[in-house]
Amino acid sequence: MRKQKGLSLIEMLVSLAIVGIIITAVSPSIQGILIKNKIVSEINELSAVIQFARNNAIDQQITTVVCPSDDYLACTTNWNNPKIVFIDSDNDGNRGAAEELLATTGAISDNNVLTGPNSSLSFNPSGEARAISNLLLCHNSKNAEYARSMTIAFQGRVKVSGDSDRNGIHEDADGVALSCP
After folding, report:
1. Which among 144, 118, 114 is positioned nearest to 131, based on CA atoms?
2. What residue numbers bound the domain in which 84 lies?
3. Overall number of domains in the chain
4. pTM, whole model, 2 decimals?
5. Which of 5, 124, 125, 178 could form a disulfide linkage to 147, CB 3.0–4.6 angstroms apart?
């Protein structure tokens, strides 16, 4: 008599049930990790393009601007749009036809919302920002655990929020816990 190898239907159904229970228990934490990774990715991309603009202003000794743009030509106030970096040779804060486009980024993902100033970010040839600016990136769930912010100081320094008290919610440059509107 030969011995059969393999699983019976009952054994397979029990195994699938166990796997289903494990996936159901782990799924929410995996989703949270994915959301946090996307937020961090987008805030890092934004930080990099802003720092690039500042460095370009210093290196080239010319005013450089970062702003959101839906057509890569004109600045808008919707920070969810793609961002453009350009040399602002006429110092008007808007990209003219002759002003060189230096860099672009993609739009913020549909699951996230970025709020920022009602104007562009402009850096003088010394690297100083024309104004202090704050940007806040939130997930559509408005959960404060996913919120991240970035502050651009007068000196042009970019500071990304951190969780100094380790409670799972980041604080802004003043130490105030972030919340999503």
Report:
1. 118
2. 34-160
3. 1
4. 0.83
5. 178
